[in-house]
Amino acid sequence: MKNSRIVIFSLLAISWLLAVSIRGLAIPVLARFEVGDPQVILGLNATTLAAVLLGTGSFLILNRHPLVVSFANEVVDELRKVTWPDKDDTVQNTVIVIGVTLFIAFALGLYDYVWAEVTQIVLFSQS
What we know:
Layout: H1 4-32, E1 39-41, E2 44-45, H2 46-64, H3 66-81, H4 87-123
Antiparallel strand pairs: 1-2
Helix pairs in contact: 1-2, 1-3
């Protein structure tokens, strides 16, 4: 497999994100139920230890699964085929997107203002 370093790094990043997310979600849940986060081994909290074990386990499982590894390898191969825009194209397209976004925001704001005035006149006119 020619992309093994990239694939392993990607799987490691996914496992790390999973572990950090689980730990980040476990802390408020424990606080909600007024349960402390005890220190277990070497000054590590239980949530940190669980996150490390979960991250390591998920990395090992993902790294050993042939479908996941072949899919990640194919993704890297396809991303190598992409022709990425240069700096000038990126700046030009960014300016266009910001300009169109500002124009649409202005148009929607004007539309909202006009219809608010029309609604004010129609609903609250003294008949």
